[in-house]
Amino acid sequence: MKKAILTTKVGMTQIFNEDGVLTPVTVLQAGPCVVTQVKTEENDGYSAVQVGFVDKKEKGINKPQKGHFDKAGVAPKRFVREFRFENAEEYTVGQEIKADIFTAGDKIDATATSKGKGYAGGIKRHGLKSGPSAHGSKYHRHAGSNGMASDPSKVFKGKKMPGQMGAERVTIQNLEIVKVDADQNIILVKGAVPGPKKSLVMLKESVKA
Length: 209
Hints:
This protein is mainly β. The chain has helices at residues 41-44, 63-72, 122-126; strands spanning 4-16, 22-30, 33-39, 48-55, 77-83, 96-97, 107-113, 116-120, 163-166, 169-181, 186-190, 200-205. The chain folds into two domains: 4-116 and 168-205, Translation factors (Elongation Factor Tu (Ef-tu), domain 3, Beta Barrel), CATH 2.40.30; 117-165, no CATH class. It is built from three helices and twelve strands. The mean pLDDT is 93.
């Protein structure tokens, strides 16, 4: 991996290309991210670049965090993540990573925490088939039988049943960047990106493309 950045989700809109074709896009505020630490094979056992994103008040961090940011010479950050860049040794502490590392047409993978949808039944959560809709069936939105015989006398883990839906880490692969505004650090991504507005979205160059 050579390119990655932390962003926050602004919302969705649509743009028209030169041929008048409408494209729905997600607007992402990308960085600027600041390099807070460069990890090396000799010192840490692996090479990576640690970056911080979105300033945070100093009273909201503890002493170890304050010492870490003071050592790097950067303001406290709300989000701190690591990227395993192939060229990690080329980065320096305090360096900024901005939206212009990506260009229009690049393929990316977007990772975020999806919207929480509360406690949901099997039909909504897993797409199970409902029972007959007639009044007499009395079986409409149940998940069906899940009991076991005396052997093995248990319900196997992983069965599609009601439960918490959403609010989990999701990665959407092979999304396309439609436009990059380097001045305002804004990236427009074709289609939808997981997570609610103002949430953290991690963009990495696509592993498939």
